[in-house]
Design brief:
The protein has about 450 residues and is an alpha/beta fold. The protein has helices at about 5-15, 15-40, 45-60, 60-75, 85-100, 110-115, 120-125, 135-140, 160-170, 175-195, 220-225, 245-260, 290-295, 310, 315-320, 330-340, 340-345, 355-360, 370-380, 385-400, 405-420, 425, 445-455; strands at about 80-85, 105, 130, 195-200, 205, 210-215, 230-235, 240, 265-270, 280-285.
Length: about 450
């Protein structure tokens, strides 16, 4: 296993206890908003079941719906491009931009383009790229990637943003959110007005009509796409849904799950280019059909990128998104990333308590814990786990296999905890206990007490 694991990266994050605390509380606040929004919809669970069924059908008939989407989009005057991987996606986007002489580009939030590392690729080719989502612009100015699917700069406090804007944009070092937002608005508006091209992501692509739906809360995607003469929409091939009537299901689930809102402030439908402008869509595979072929992990393609699993995950909340080392962090990222490179990301399936909270909040009912457990099995079988973990798991398995061994081990551990309570922590065998105070060990186990009280063997 490589040294640069989630655990080692998370150790750096948790060294700042204050940051760990407010990061945890901020995300839990969003989780609570999600719960309130879900409880206000009597048919919430029925919507989740329906969303799961729609996604399962769409993923199971992906080729059919993608071809239908391409036909309808082409009929609407949209230029459709196909990319096998990130390299092809980036090359196609650059070719479109160069063909129109575009040098200034504005982007709304797109996790796919982050996944493909589009920004640095275009910048190396002489294209100015400006992120227009506020959170994305913050991390871009800071030279970072997003740490969250929906809240890219959740790892930064308003004081951090004030210092960043003061240094880069020349604003007052004032942490007032209203002032910072206004400063960002003035900073970005002129760039939107003068852009040669705009790039957006795609939340949903409707096969029935060829329409693309982009969901934002800031209106930046609309401004960019309607002011620039060239609009390029970048979408993973898993974004297609069969019919327009299905949109209502997903739009009711998406914002409530992600931020606790009834609906995103802007749910924009792009059907055809406006007069005098061009509209392109780049449909990207980049490992998705490989994931589709894995029966155990096919459900991961149902994800609508709401971020609910990140907001509820106790590991993500306390370790930060950058500790995962991938574009999509948290529980969903921990089942997607190993499919790209298991040797590199073998630690991610273990970055979970398997508490099941992620599955409870997922709007499309992805069984994330089951897939995390399955990746763990594969990682062990293929030798991507350290000898210490393999040895300890074998020892634990042998101990649990027989009641007598389990009881003897229990007596030994109770003695150790009574006479040397810090021994396990100092040994490094149980890092879990480094940040927790272990309870006083009892004199006997429940089974021993029960036998003594009942007089049974």
């Amino acid at each position: 296993m490589r040294a640069n694991t989630h655990a080692t990266a998370a150790a750096t994050f948790v060294q700042d206890a204050e940051r760990t605390g407010w990061h945890d509380k901020a995300l839990w606040f969003v989780r609570q908003r999600r719960d309130s929004a879900a409880q206000a919809v009597p048919e919430w669970e029925a919507l989740r079941e329906l969303a799961f069924a729609i996604k399962r059908h769409a993923v199971g008939n992906l080729a059919h719906y993608l071809e239908r989407f391409e036909r309808r989009a082409t009929e609407n005057g949209v230029s459709v491009h196909w990319a096998r991987d990130a390299s092809e996606h980036n090359a196609i986007v650059l070719d479109i931009l160069r063909g129109r002489g575009a040098r200034r580009l504005v982007k709304s939030k797109s996790m796919l383009t982050e996944e493909c590392r589009l920004n640095p690729f275009l910048e190396r080719s002489g294209i100015e790229v400006v992120e227009t989502d506020l959170g994305e612009r913050i991390v871009q100015l800071a030279g970072e990637g997003p740490s969250h699917i929906v809240l890219p700069a959740i790892h930064r406090k308003k004081e951090d943003v004030a210092a960043l804007f003061h240094r880069v944009l020349g604003t007052r070092e004032d942490p007032d959110p209203a002032y910072l937002t206004e400063a960002a608005r003035h900073h970005l508006r002129g760039r939107m007005a003068s852009a040669d091209a705009a790039i957006t992501g795609v939340n949903f692509a409707v096969a029935e009509t060829g329409a693309m739906v982009v969901c934002t809360n800031e209106g930046n995607a609309d401004l960019g796409a309607h002011l620039a003469p060239l609009h390029i929409a970048c979408m993973g091939l898993d974004k297609v849904i069969p019919r327009t009537e299905h949109l209502g299901v997903f739009l009711r689930l998406l914002a409530r799950s992600g931020t606790g809102q009834p609906v995103t402030a802007y749910s924009s439908h792009f059907l055809r280019p406006r007069p005098g402008a061009e509209l392109h869509v780049v449909i990207v595979d980049n490992g998705r059909t490989t994931q589709l072929a894995r029966i155990d992990f096919r459900e991961s393609l149902h994800c609508i990128r709401c971020g609910a699993c990140l907001n509820t995950c106790p590991v993500y909340r306390r370790s930060g998104g950058h500790s995962y080392g991938v574009t999509v962090a948290g529980p969903i990222g921990a089942i997607l990333a190993p499919g790209f490179d298991l040797a590199r990301h073998a630690s991610l399936p273990f970055a979970s308590t398997l508490c099941g909270s992620c599955a409870d909040v997922c709007p499309v009912k992805i069984d994330i814990p089951r897939q995390l457990y399955r990746w763990r099995q594969i990682a062990v079988a293929e030798g991507h786990v350290s000898w210490r973990k393999r040895w300890s798991m074998r020892l634990l398995g042998a101990t649990l296999a027989r009641v007598s061994r389990y009881e003897r081990a229990g007596r030994l551990v109770r003695r150790l905890l009574r006479h040397a309570p810090g021994l396990l922590s100092r040994s490094g065998l149980t890092p879990w206990s480094l940040s927790r105070e272990l309870p006083v060990a009892p004199q006997e186990s429940f089974r021993e007490w029960y036998r003594r009280e009942r007089g049974t063997s």
